[in-house]
Specification:
Blueprint lengths: L2 H12 L7 H5 L2 H21 L2 H24 L5 H15 L1 H4 L8 H18 L15 H13 L8 H21 L2 H22 L3 H24 L10 H16 L1
Helix pairs in contact: 1-4, 3-4, 8-10, 9-10, 11-12
């Protein structure tokens, strides 16, 4: 029995109405989907930390999610795990004609990226998804989806020529947000905040930066510097609650300086 066959058999046992795990038996596509997203994020986190042992474990957890969904589909007579594996194998061969087909095998990375998008566009047409934005997944994190939406629109020419225009739009959106805050209209302020975040996602896309990656980095930086503040205060036997903003701001600057050293 291969490791994958063993995993599939374990999943079948967990879902067995008699002798299975009650929690696993109760699950549906909808209830498992959040766990699938969580496991994908944990894979990204392990990569970010450079922890290869943890990455191995997290990839296993993510694979289990695939097996879980495939098992539920098999129970409904929809498809089985091998159908999932064959579907991605077919897609990879179809989207790499320069490797598996008759096209020039010496195609460079930039040309391949364009060719990939052309093949995906043809696939959308075959699936009767005629809109440019039709298959951008709703379940993506909002910042990542915003960047993908602007990328897709840019492919058909709906894009600013440079980052200058994006910065102009950013300034405009900041002014509109401040106006709604000053007016006390929090519903409109929320709307303007969304516009501002969308512009930032677009700017990230223009710079070739994944906004989710950038924000994860900022989160990690904030945690690292705040830990510096806590450690500095602890040397005096104090906590942040026993400090004030001016002191903590000074320690924040010290943390930044220490990182640059």
């Amino acid at each position: 029995m291969t490791p994958v066959d063993r995993l599939i058999a374990i999943m079948a046992q967990l879902r067995a109405p008699v002798g299975g795990c009650p929690w696993d038996v109760e699950q549906t596509f909808e209830t498992i989907a959040p766990y699938t997203l969580e496991e994908a994020y944990e894979v990204a986190d392990a990569i970010e930390r450079g922890d290869m042992d943890d990455l191995k474990s997290e990839l296993g957890d993510l694979l289990f999610q695939v097996v879980f969904h495939a098992r539920m589909a098999e129970e409904k007579g929809l498809f089985v795990f091998n159908d999932v594996a064959n579907a991605i194998a077919d897609k990879l061969e179809r989207r790499h004609p320069h490797v598996f087909g008759e096209e020039d095998a010496k195609i460079d990375g930039a040309a391949q990226k364009v060719r990939w998008e052309d093949i995906k566009a043809a696939e959308r047409k075959d699936k009767e998804q005629h809109g440019v934005l039709d298959d951008v997944p709703v379940g993506l994190p909002a910042l990542a989806r915003a960047a993908k939406l602007t990328k897709r629109a840019a492919r058909v020419g709906f894009d600013w020529p440079s980052t200058d225009e994006v910065f102009d739009k950013f300034v405009e959106e900041v002014a509109e947000l401040r106006a709604e805050i000053a007016a006390g209209d929090l519903d409109k302020a929320k709307d303007e905040m969304g516009d501002l975040l969308f512009v930032l996602a677009n700017l990230a896309r223009k710079l070739g930066v994944e906004p989710e990656d950038a924000l994860r980095g900022a989160n990690a930086k904030f945690i690292r510097r705040f830990h510096f503040i806590e450690a500095a205060l602890a040397q005096d036997g104090r906590t942040p609650e026993q400090s004030d903003l001016a002191e903590m701001d000074g320690l924040w600057d010290a943390a930044k300086a220490a990182e640059r050293a």
